[in-house]
Amino acid sequence: MTKRILIIEDNVDIARLAMVNLGSKQMHVDHAADGTVGLKMAQMGDYDLVILDLMLPGMDGLDLCRSLRSDRIYTPVLMLTARTSELDRVLGLEVGADDYLTKPFSVPELVARVNAILRRSDQYQTREAEAVDAPLQLGELCVDPGKRRVLLGGTVVELTAREFDLLWHFASHPDRVFTRSQLLDSVWGYGHAGYEHTVNSHINRLRSKIESDPAKPRYVITVWGVGYKFSGREAARLAS
Known about the structure:
The protein is α/β, with parallel strands linked by helices and 240 residues long. Helix content is 45%, strand content 19%.
């Protein structure tokens, strides 16, 4: 099935380059150069992915992504940004972006990121359709892959799509230690060196939502010098 991509980017050269290269991969690509127009297209169109520039006329990328998630439109979002500070990246993830790419970027990397996001989306849609994974009840924490819902003490925890994928991966493999590169490969679908900070940002956001004290996490534990793991011992203690 042909994938439908929406590019919301006011730089005509970047938009044209992305459209040509994604189009050559048998993807149908639409373009909006204005944030307000792009939001309407994203709300009305049945897209598989939105490639979203951070700085836009009409409505910036952060507000646009926030509006989509507020409307419960969970189309994956790849955010493009010329800003390199960690704060800008974290803000994008916080409002619901699934991944980000910093300008300037290479065309092969853009295509690889798009393919990785689409592949992960297809995998989770297939899993939900087959309903092979039962909810995990881990003491106060309940992770339901079928509904893609997380409850903490009976209260719904609002996670982005990527945060949910990361939590489910951890919870499905309690006490197994993952390096950042392994998490990039398994959860994001790519393992490019130099993007470990992507994992760090998502771990921090996830902890802020499921940990009572993110500075002293009970669930997602840092294994110094290696990576992270989900604490099966804590889950078992809470369930007892």
